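Preliminary data (for renewal application), adenosine-5'-diphosphate complex.
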Amino acid sequence: MPEILGASGLSVELGARRGLLRHRPGVRAVDGVELSVREGETFGIVGESGCGKTTLARALLGLQRESGGEIRLEGRSVSGLAPREARRVREAVQYVHQDPGAALDPWWRVGATLAEGLSIHGIPGRAEQQARIAETLAAVGLDPALAERYPHELSGGQQRRVGLARILLLRPKVVILDEPTAGLDLSVQAAVLRLLRDLRARFGLTYIFISHDLSVVRRVCDRVAVMYLGRVVEQGPAETLFAAPGHPYTRALLAAAPRLDGTQTGPALPGDPPSLRAVPSGCRFHPRCGLATPDCAARDPALEDAAPGHRIACLRWRDAA
Ligand SMILES: Nc1ncnc2c1ncn2[C@@H]1O[C@H](COP(=O)(O)OP(=O)(O)O)[C@@H](O)[C@H]1O
Ligand SMILES: [Mg+2]
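Predicted structure:
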């Protein structure tokens, strides 16, 4: 399948203050990210909290201006635009917030929130709007009568479904799901994942699935990128990545992930993720890596092909195998 959304050397700086007298440097929450998402797939992005997943999503959406690199949508370069223009050009890319309640106005009935989205996107006419809303609520498995309710009158699972309906109304091609199953009971989680799979087929969607839950990513994603401190350090087919992870960080993440029976196969990752304000020299994972040599503190590895479609940024992955 061809690429639908991609990035090369993408960087995003956050928190910089530029003044006449005082210049405060920002942090690079996304730093040289390489990404290629293919039409129709579910592409996973995993990594510890704070590694830049949401910032990357906001840059892809055009909500956060990139400070360097390129973003491609359906073969066209769409980077370097002013925020309004960026968002307009990237309308085909929509976002489902990691906090489903946050996307809904607490003072508005669900139906009014959904109708507003349609008005903003130039679909006027009350009758047309009502018909589309009812149809879309049914598609996400909700009773259209729920349009009369306020967000607090919905369960967490229902709020998530409304969040999905809200963006489906805008006919997206790529949907970025930010931690779509976080905080849900296992049974609700399974239902949401089933619904996502059905919607992908029915509406011809491509998903970017952001999660720190490796077991969920393993179940639903076709390909996966692993992020560490603003970088993609490994990318490949989900099957390969989970069966034979190449990067020591991916190995450590998998080993530290709790299994269904509550046990872990290996120790938790040593230490906290280092701060973006003091990014380690060379390979940024080297202070936490059991394989690191002095060379790793000196050289910053780029992603290289380990196998067709499987890329690893590590000087020592061959020794780990
Ligand atoms: N406005 C900001 N100014 C400075 N740093 C920020 C800002 N927003 C987020 N960050 C930092 O950027 C990093 C990436 O955050 P985020 O993209 O939310 O990570 P994730 O979604 O992977 O948890 C974090 O270390 C966070 O503290
Ligand atoms: Mg996040």
